[in-house]
């Protein structure tokens, strides 16, 4: 067991280059990675020493070193990261898909935590908790105005322990206490599955992750659908940020012939990497397959999509994928306590030999992308890291406000910023060698031409259709959710599980809007100016005619604040929002996800392809026109 040594900073800096593993040094005689490290450590030690000796107040050495480590890794790429104890806990949750808790998604409503949705088959679901229930107390502690981080901390605990929560429900006179025993909750990779039409199956990994049980979940879901008689399949990978490489290869394995190439991984000193191949005859090799991708499909999701495209096993529909073609390795740093290092150690290549890694994700030093927020420009990497570590939108908004002292509207604007704005566009100035301009043509197994860096292009491009801005605002303010909770809780509707989105409900929604969170969040355009005019009129002694004109103007402004003009183009989107939230409240999360697909243009295009076998085969096997 090594004893701790107490060394002065200059001595420590001088010794650090000498304590590298001898095996590593011997293996790198020709290319010694430590050759230039002495001068670097001397510069760091000189700066650190002056800070320790002369800074105007005592410094937190742990924080300084953490900042130095974070800065080092940030200059490498966006994915290398140091994990402390809390970070390790989150990392294990992401890779295993498990955590100890109740099984609910929570947000904030009326200053209390509100249940957005219980996860099916969890303690919360078995206890009868429903979307819209307010958690007004945890173990007798009032939750009014608690932040989401505090709420989640109080709700989580060791498996087998019990927590008492007080519930308030719309339409129920009295609050009541529910005792729930915490369990190990498994976050499923398959968000939902079912038949979209007779014979067309659908399995969604949308906005989930590739964790330890993903391939088993996907295989089980497709097996159930096959027993129900499906003859074709849609695999939804949109918004899936990736996860375990091993699970990506096993999901691809479900569809590819034995021995088919899936992915190769190449490290720094190796031009060629070992190709991972399908290990067994495919379980679902005969199913016509469409894979949905978009700008949020990354890493493991792209490995699956690229392998299926390059083997001509599936058609890809949607928009270009994210372009994360790098591999991270976790290094245990337990000698430092509860710590680990996630480091980018390789790039992966699809079977055709292409790298789809978007090089502009690695921002060169001095070219850090800035995102405007209010009167300031904030670093995109820092913003994106904070957002990605938040469990939901409300928490992200709270953290953005607290971290950067933003108004809520400014934080919401950041949250609605398109992902490609965080990535930025590579310019000739930043990338003189044109790293993203890979025009090399690669060929799929059947000879189709595909291209490399910058993500995976779908075979059929279908842009996601954005609703009008007013409907986007309704979603951001959870207006549909709030309305449905109130509507279902009304005495005339209570207990009715056959409710539908009809003209009566749409009209009730119109009447609800002036009292909604959207109305409260709308800017009071002109109100401040009108108040200033009133002060000026009073100070200047303007006549009664001016005062009456100001009164009329105020009435007009107040009337406008109450009037929500819904354009005809927004009505289908409003019906869609009401439909999904009604399904969530009455039938659960999976029913809600399935109901939304009827309004999904990319899903509808995929269904049309599977209904037209001739077009499907033509697209799957056709060579590029430029090569004929």
Tally of individual helices: 24
The domain count comes to 5
Biggest sheet: strands, sense, closure?
6 strands, mixed
The CATH architecture designation of the largest domain is Alpha-Beta Complex
Mean pLDDT: 82
Classify the secondary structure makeup into a structural class.
alpha+beta
> Class of the largest domain, according to the CATH hierarchy?
Alpha Beta
Within CATH, the superfamily of the largest domain carries the name 2-enoyl-CoA Hydratase, Chain A, domain 1
Low-confidence stretches: 1-29, 361-368, 425-437, 624-628
Helical amount: 25-40%
The neighbouring-strand order within the major sheet is 10-11-12-15-16-23
Descriptive overview:
The chain is an alpha+beta fold. Helix content is 40%, strand content 18%. The protein is built from 24 helices and 23 strands. The strands form seven sheets. A six-stranded mixed β-sheet has the order 10-11-12-15-16-23, with helices on both faces. Helix 1 runs antiparallel to helix 3, helix 12 packs across helix 13 and helix 16 (479-489) crosses helix 21 (571-587). It is globular.
Structure summarized in a few sentences:
This protein has 628 residues and is α+β, with helices and mostly antiparallel strands. The chain is 40% helix and 18% strand.
Task: Name the features.
six-stranded mixed beta sheet, 2-enoyl-CoA Hydratase, Chain A, domain 1, alpha+beta, 18% strand, five-stranded antiparallel beta sheet, 628 residues, 5 domains, 40% helix, Pdz3 Domain, 24 helices, disordered N terminus
């Amino acid at each position: 067991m090594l004893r701790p040594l107490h060394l002065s900073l200059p001595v420590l800096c001088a010794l650090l280059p000498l304590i590298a593993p001898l095996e590593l040094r011997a293996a790198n005689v020709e290319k010694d990675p430590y050759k230039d490290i002495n001068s670097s450590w001397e510069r760091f030690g000189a700066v650190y020493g002056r800070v320790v000796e002369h800074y105007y107040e005592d410094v937190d050495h742990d924080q300084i070193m953490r900042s130095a480590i974070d800065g080092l890794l940030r200059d490498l790429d966006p994915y290398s990261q140091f994990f402390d104890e809390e970070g390790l806990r989150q990392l294990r949750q992401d890779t295993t898909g498990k955590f100890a808790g109740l099984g609910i998604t929570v947000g904030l409503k009326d200053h209390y935590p509100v249940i957005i949705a219980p996860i099916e088959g969890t303690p919360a679901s078995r206890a009868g908790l429903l979307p819209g229930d307010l958690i007004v107390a945890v173990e007798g502690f009032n939750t009014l105005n608690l932040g989401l981080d505090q709420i989640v901390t109080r709700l989580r605990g060791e498996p087998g322990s019990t927590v008492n929560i007080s519930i308030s429900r719309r339409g129920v006179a009295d609050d009541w206490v529910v005792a729930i025993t915490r369990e190990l909750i498994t976050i499923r990779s398959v968000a939902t599955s079912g038949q979209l039409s007779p014979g067309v199956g659908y399995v969604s990994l949308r906005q989930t992750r590739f964790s330890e049980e993903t391939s088993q979940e996907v295989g089980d879901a497709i097996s159930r659908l096959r027993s129900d008689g499906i003859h074709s399949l849609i695999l939804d990978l949109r918004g899936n940020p990736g996860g375990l490489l091993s699970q990506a290869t096993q999901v691809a394995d479900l569809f590819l012939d034995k021995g088919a190439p899936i992915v190769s991984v190449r490290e720094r000193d190796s031009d060629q990497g070992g190709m991972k191949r399908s290990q067994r005859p495919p379980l679902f090799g005969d199913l016509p397959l469409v894979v949905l991708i978009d700008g949020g499909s990354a890493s493991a999701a792209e490995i699956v999509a690229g392998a299926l495209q390059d083997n001509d096993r599936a058609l890809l529909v949607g928009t270009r994928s994210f372009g994360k073609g790098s591999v991270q390795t976790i290094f245990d740093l337990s000698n430092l306590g509860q710590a680990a290092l996630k480091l980018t150690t390789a790039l992966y290549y699809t079977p055709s030999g292409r790298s789809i890694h978007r090089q502009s994700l690695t921002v060169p030093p001095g070219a850090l992308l800035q995102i405007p927020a209010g009167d300031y420009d904030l670093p995109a990497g820092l913003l994106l890291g904070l957002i990605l570590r938040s469990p939901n939108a409300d928490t992200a908004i709270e953290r953005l406000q607290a971290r950067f002292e933003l108004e809520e509207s400014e934080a919401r604007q950041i949250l609605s910023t398109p992902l490609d704005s965080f990535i930025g566009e590579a310019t000739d100035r930043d990338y003189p060698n044109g790293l993203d301009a890979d025009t090399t043509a690669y060929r799929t197994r059947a000879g189709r031409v595909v291209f490399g860096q910058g993500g995976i292009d779908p075979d059929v491009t279908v842009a996601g259709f954005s609703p009008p801005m007013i409907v986007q605002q309704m979603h951001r303010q959870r207006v549909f959710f709030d309305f449905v909770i109130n509507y279902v809780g009304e005495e005339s509707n209570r207990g009715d599980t056959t409710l539908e989105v009809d003209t009566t409900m749409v009209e009730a929604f119109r009447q609800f809007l002036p009292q909604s969170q959207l109305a409260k969040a709308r800017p009071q355009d002109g109100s401040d100016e009108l108040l200033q005019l009133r002060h000026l009129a009073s100070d200047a002694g303007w006549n009664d005619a001016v005062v009456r004109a100001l009164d009329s103007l105020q009435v007009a402004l107040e009337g406008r604040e109450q009037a929500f003009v819904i354009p005809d183009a927004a009505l289908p989107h409003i019906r869609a929002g009401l439909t999904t939230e009604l399904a969530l409240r009455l039938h659960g999360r999976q029913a809600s996800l399935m109901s939304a697909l009827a309004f999904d243009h990319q899903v509808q295009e995929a269904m049309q392809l599977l209904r037209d076998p001739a077009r499907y085969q033509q697209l799957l096997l056709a060579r590029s026109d430029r090569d004929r």
